[in-house]
Queue: 2 jobs
Job 1
Amino acid sequence: MARCLYSFLCVALFLVSCSALPDPKKVRARSRPRYETAPTTPSVPGAPRIVGGFQIDISDAPYQISLQSFGSHICGGSIIARKWILTAAHCTDGRTVFSLRIRVGSSRHARGGVLMRIKRIIQHPEYDDSTIDYDYSLLELANNIALSKNAQPVALPEQDESYMDDTLCKISGWGLTQSPTEARSSLRAAYVPTYNHAKCDEAYASYGGITDQMLCAGYEMGGKDACQGDSGGPLVAEGKLLGVVSWGIGCAQPNYPGVYARVSAVRDWIHSNSGV
């Protein structure tokens, strides 16, 4: 009798655990946001380095900030006004203003510039942590940024503003380089072209595809991309912030361009919450 009861309980537990397994489409991006603690992937031939980038001075991307938690860099972000930062929702999800700071005006995430407190986090209400959709978060600072050549807001696109495929964009950040000879302590950048939306959706079809709130940028052969630690950072073209570093398969891998949160999709939301 005891053995039968034990067997019944084992079967019941197995059925419960199976029913609790998540739908693969619902978790297509959970392990791949470009966040500091996300699992890294081995480098692949032709894609060792951002990835594939070069070192720059903060004055070359004065809108870039380092989002930090208890003194450690976790994500990037962009200055959009003296008191406002735009970053990725997966960078702030579950965090409080007390655990976060931003460093502005420095080419190094660990020193220099000014470390500033955050007054308020406004995460997009439709952010979905299982699909990484609506991956936007506004940070209101406790004090105004002192603007200089090393700290400047980046312009924003209009609501639903379009762009041409193959528009060359600059990405920047302190994320993984996948190369032991390239330090990530100093700010790095790379240039990548925007990628056709339908082709990107097809490339990620087995992972649920991409949404209208996402855009892609990169090369079919890979080699240049954002990576873990670059999340929340800027994708800029012609002086405008087109995207926020969000997620992707590995980093700089062939046929998998980087996926970014499209800023023009939520321009009205940004304005209604920040006045910017």
Job 2
Amino acid sequence: MPSDLPKTMKALVAYDKGDYRFESAYPVPECGDDDIIIKTEGCGICAGDLKCYQGNSTWGDETHAKWVRPPFIPGHEFLGHIVKKGRNVTEYELGERIIADQIVPCGKCKFCKSGRYWMCQPHATFGFQKENNGGMAEYVRYPKTAVLHRVPEDLPLEKALLIEPYSCSKHAVDRAGITIEDVVVVSGAGTLGLGMITYIRQMNPAKLIVLDMRDERLAKAKEFGADIVINSGKEDALQLISDLTEGYGCDIYIEAAGHPSSVVQGLQMVRKLGTFVEFGVFAEATTVDWTLVGDNKELNVLGSHLSPYCYPYVIENIANGTLKTDGLVERYFQLEDWEKAFDYATGKYGDFKIAFKF
């Protein structure tokens, strides 16, 4: 692998919400003594990328501080090969294929020092801040504190691109604490929901039920291990779950759709003393009946953020086929066609995951 890099590269650059621009001569990142530069192999488009482009709360609103720091290069579902490394980097060699957690922990705050690095207080992340540009570019810099993982060279790109989203899926499921006695409902059968489904299948719960409003997604959910699928746009999902559980409701509800109606539905659907896990990213504020959460049901309401300690399991089990991946990444775009790629990434043409290939 050459250590001398070009001066410029192709990149998608975010200047403001709704103001993303393809640039053919953006500066290639510099490599400091503790840094690694990869040549990007591919980068998936996340729902979070779409909602950021559309102007969600990461840009700041009445309840959220501005989190993005433009101009930045989007993309956090990426991997590549090392083409340059700083003189202090000894653990990795040129040519190795690597991927990183989305979070770039500081290593100094109370969360990092206690092993909870994914909630790092400064909260630097790839793909939303100019200090840590993302994978929608030909080259990416991994700084010293990036949490890196090797990726098998023989793992096909369409599978490797699912490492980051599936790791997020695994963390959400782990938060739920599923047992073999639980009736589990997953709301949303997009890529991340499907990652949850194939992982939950390994736990063999009493029932794994999946809700979505698209029949093609429900068919894939069934293929990936769901026992029962329900089109909540055509059927009364609340009544069906009640009937299946003798009127009690499901034990665990994992919200992976990122829509207010899915939240309201889940809080109604889960039984007393049940567990509700919120995973979805929202484009708008969501209001819930907190009396239902507290006085009526005494629910365990849990959030899920990023993918701590999940990559090794996910890489191994995608590679050995335990985690199903077939048919999720089938369409690639060139970076120049980013507007078309973002349009396809909405899923309105039937795709699960859209990615850029370099």
